[in-house]
Design a protein that fits this description.
Layout: H1 43-57, H2 64-84, H3 93-111, H4 119-140, E1 144-145, H5 146-174, E2 181-182, E3 185-186, H6 193-201, H7 204-212, H8 218-238, H9 243-257, H10 261-291, H11 295-326, H12 331-360, H13 363-376, H14 398-411, H15 423-429, H16 442-473, H17 478-498, H18 507-522, E4 523-524, H19 539-569, H20 574-587, H21 593-604, H22 608-621, H23 626-638, H24 642-655, H25 661-670, H26 677-692
Length: 697
């Protein structure tokens, strides 16, 4: 069935007559008629999106025990589609080239395990890249009818809005925050406010697009407009400063590449009004949580904003849709209105500029202040305010993080230092008290971890994939081109915001981004495209590759599950916990996590022999593990081996020079004073809570 071309849909009763009827060709079937009958052919895509939504609801799927089994499932779906659906990307040379580049980048990531300092982390990073490759290939394998693509995109938008809303309503009713806010910022379902904001904002413009399309039934247009409002309001409570430039830039890109811009602008304006009216109460949640004053009242007011704005937007979307079905604006009038809107926006900017300068000061001075704050990680009194994190200046540890990332690239410019191997280098070279695991930048991650080779491969992938999307944008069918633009907008937001954050490492953010990028290049007006089946000689290599990939994912997953189980059950049966940890280290011969956990458990039950053995094994697998050396120093000190203890502390200090506990322990050991293990554990816990903003008042 063919998607209707909006420029050709006519009827005696006006544009409302776009649905199928016995007297009308099936080409007039609207997009969302597919919602009730998406065939089994498209179920792999729907199931994959369901995996992404599950990850979103469980802390973004960040933990290996969450994303590794989901990746195995996605790999299986990809193999099923590849074996049963014919040649991939037939007639799509750019998508084929993008897949080849991405496969080469994935292979290079696995090769980097060989020269990575922390090989277990490198294996995790390579497997995550494998996940994104599987997602991209799955969604790029065959043409997807725009009807089906719209159903998938709309369902994902609605489910994301539902997850965020339910999470907020649950914590509002619970009367206890329990980590749902970090330093006043909404941190649920993902326990990182910036990632939470990206979860809600990436599907925002696709929601706006679907709410603006005449082909979408009126009720569903109202739902999409309400979802757009909910997503924007939930993101407001996350208070991500990077979103203040990422969302406007993405919106500009979307409007630049999207057909029927006036429709999108109208939907954006409809969303902006109720959200703007409720922003004050949404931002007040931050102040209430930070000050610990009238928190429940602030949450209740925010709930009211969400409810009433969603209702208002639903009614507005429904009303706009009903009018849209009966009124068709001529093309010339549409162009005229577009020019009027553009000129009006330009005049508004010119008029507002002196007002903004008078209120906020000289932009040059503010830029200079912002750079000073960013470089020194110290906010100035002129910018700090407790009323909003968004207005708290630009102080951040990212300058120091990026400095170390660039130093990594200088150290290994060709091959990189190995994927996911930033943490140990930062601990050694840092100038702050922060302990980040990742570079907080997609570009620096690729450059520092995979070197120039990996960077060229990934850039080649991006160029080819975007060229594939550009072909879809040039189609005469505005619904197809618009859907491609919406998919590219979702990817663009992830790319822009991820340029200053660590979104690659959050599967609930990265996986949908690559899915929409692939879909943008494969969306077509109808589903009558048929590709020849894969030749038989290609089946065996494909099956072998899938089997190797499954083993690469399954072994660390089972190992991580054993480690998790042992960590939670050692108080009941320590012997069983040690057996599980021993199995985990055999299943994953590269990681030191099992040995570290075994050492910690042994220290709690005062089994010094097991403790020494476990931490020594951890160092064998990861020579950069400062914590294992620190714990061995404590073991030696308890046994009276002062020289050996001081030697371990010296090495630990070289690996983590700014660790404040090491000098204190070194001083006590040198003076042969007892070291309280319980006090050290309390210090570590307290500092972790301070760094993560979860310390209870």
């Amino acid at each position: 069935m063919r998607l209707p071309r909006s420029s050709k849909v006519t009827s005696p009763r006006g544009p409302a007559e776009v649905g199928p009827s016995p007297a009308r060709n099936a080409e007039a079937q609207p997009i969302w008629d597919a919602a009730l009958g998406v065939s089994m052919r498209w179920s792999p895509l729907a199931l994959t999106l369901a995996v992404f939504l599950v990850w979103a609801a469980v802390d973004g799927g960040y933990a290996p025990v969450k994303w590794l089994p989901g990746t195995i499932f996605v790999l299986g779906l990809t193999a099923i589609v590849a074996l049963g659906e014919g040649r991939p990307m037939a007639g799509r040379p750019f998508l084929a080239a993008a897949s080849i580049f991405f496969a080469a980048f994935t292979a290079w990531s696995f090769l980097s395990i060989a020269w990575a300092d922390v090989k277990g982390d490198a294996w995790d990073g390579a497997n995550r890249t494998l996940l994104y490759l599987c997602v991209f290939v799955l969604f790029a394998w065959r043409p997807v009818p725009a009807r089906v693509g719209a159903v998938l995109l709309g369902a994902f938008v609605a489910a994301t809005a539902a997850i965020g809303t339910i999470e907020f309503l649950t914590l509002e009713q619970a009367h206890r925050l329990d980590g749902s806010f970090i330093q006043g910022r909404l941190s649920t379902p993902i326990s990182y406010p910036n990632a939470n904001a990206a979860l809600f904002l990436a599907p925002f413009l696709p929601a706006v697009f679907l709410a603006s399309r005449r082909e979408v039934p009126p009720l569903l247009r109202g739902v999409m407009l309400a979802c757009a409002g909910l997503l924007l309001e939930l993101a407001t409570m996350c208070q991500s400063r990077a979103s203040l430039f990422a969302l406007p830039l993405t919106a500009l890109v979307f409007l630049a590449i999207s057909p029927d811009r006036l429709r999108s602008l109208l939907a954006l304006a409809a969303v902006a009004l109720p959200v703007a009216l409720g922003t004050g109460r949404l931002l007040h949640v931050y102040t209430a949580v930070v000050e610990g004053h009238e928190v429940q009242l602030a949450l209740t007011q925010a709930r009211s904003v969400l409810a009433w704005s969603a209702l208002a937007l639903f009614v507005a979307g429904l009303g706009i849709a009903l009018v849209d079905r009966r009124v068709r604006v001529p093309a010339r009038a549409t162009r005229t209105i577009g020019w009027v809107v553009s000129v009006g926006a330009l005049v508004a900017v010119v008029v507002a500029a002196p007002v903004l300068i008078d209120r906020y000061g000289d932009p040059v001075d503010r830029a200079r202040t912002a750079w000073h704050e960013f470089r020194t990680d110290k906010p100035t009194n002129s910018t700090y305010t407790v009323s909003s994190h968004l207005s708290s200046g630009f102080a951040s540890s990212r300058y120091d993080i990026w400095r170390v990332a660039l130093d990594e690239f200088k150290t290994a410019p060709i091959a990189g230092v190995g994927v996911d191997n930033f943490a140990v280098d930062y601990l050694r070279e840092r100038r702050t008290s922060q302990e980040p695991l990742h570079q907080h930048s997609l570009e620096l991650r690729v450059l520092a971890q995979t070197g120039l080779v990996g960077t060229m491969l990934f850039v080649g992938f991006l160029i080819a994939a975007l060229l594939a999307g550009a072909r879809a944008l040039r189609r005469g069918d505005t619904a197809v081109a618009g859907l491609a633009a919406a998919c590219l907008a979702a990817f663009t937001y992830w790319l822009i915001h991820g340029s200053v954050d660590w979104f690659w490492e959050v599967p609930a953010l990265g996986a949908p981004a690559f899915a929409w990028l692939a879909l943008a290049g494969q969306v077509v007006p109808d589903d009558r495209v048929r590709a020849p089946r894969l030749p038989s000689y290609a089946l065996l290599p494909l099956v072998l590759a899938a089997a190797v990939a499954a083993a690469s994912l399954a072994l660390p997953w089972v190992a991580a599950k054993e480690i998790q189980t042992a960590s939670g059950s050692w108080t009941v049966d320590p012997a069983a916990a040690f057996r599980r940890l021993d199995l985990a280290r055999r299943l994953n011969p590269l990681t030191d996590h099992a040995d570290v956990v075994a050492g910690v458990i042994a220290s709690r039950i005062h089994d010094r022999r097991k403790e020494r053995t476990a931490f020594a094994r951890a160092i064998e697998r990861n020579t950069r593990n400062w914590y294992a050396r620190f714990e061995l120093a404590l073991v030696d000190a308890r046994e009276g081996k002062t020289a050996a203890a001081l030697a371990h502390l010296r090495l630990a200090g070289q690996l983590n020079p700014r660790e404040p506990v090491i000098p204190d322990v070194r001083k006590k050991i040198a003076q042969r004073k007892p070291v309280s293990e319980a006090a050290i554990n309390r210090l570590f816990l307290e500092r972790t809570q301070i760094l993560t903003g979860t310390r209870q008042r």
